[in-house]
Amino acid sequence: MKHTGWTTQQRMYFKDVRRSLRCSSKLRRQILAGLQSAIEDSPEASRAELESRFGTPSQFAQNVQSGMEPEQLAQARIQPFKYSLIVLAALLLLGIAGAGFYTSRELDLPKEAFGSETQAVPASAEKIEQFSLLLEDFLEDLKEANPS
Amino acid sequence: MGVSENLKRGITELALLCLLSKRDMYGYEMAQALSEYSEGRFTLQESSMYPTLYRLQDKGFISVRSVPAGKRRMRMYYHLEDSGKAYLEQSLNEYLSVQKGLRGILRQTGNKEELL
Predict the structure, then answer these.
(1) Do B51 and A27 touch (CB under 8 A)?
(2) Predicted TM-score of the model (pTM)
(3) A37 and B49: CB-CB below 8 Å?
């Protein structure tokens, strides 16, 4: 949100109101747009004038709160919880992605890291299938050699 | 939720709809008009009107338009839609019915007889 042409007092008042508001993000956007338009409409207004017109930032938030219907209040209560869940989910995803990246790096380590006698473990499904076919062949050969 | 809060919300809604039924207005203008028409009995800070205005807007009863008001200045005007006019009519009937009922109760119980 650009506040060109605003005084420092106006900018501070707007910022303080934005911090005090406890409501849904949609209502907050609408309210702040209304406040922005009202401030722009009175470019010379000092903080004291803004406070007499809209109330102090905490009064402003209280006025908004008292004007809200039960469903708007319920949305306001859900909002911080919703954000916490989003942050938690994002952290969890980041953790999983980090773990995945770390694991893939472990598997792709260059052969030199293990010395000349060792090789990286083949992890692909194709290699596992090849290995199981070889094992089956070996077991069949073993049966043929020892029929009893 | 107290009775007074519900009452205040209901009255605020009704008063704002009444103002907009006259003509399109912006926030500060509405606050001034409320104070003037009620002879100072009904003063409302603009911040108190926002939740009501946006609720009415969400329900489609009013709409908002930005009108240039000088250099780089935009004023948000609220307009009463047709559905809002019908809602106002319904709300006014409800309000008048409640008021009539309450007057009856006050009369029968001998309260504030001097005002009735």
Answers:
(1) yes
(2) 0.66
(3) no
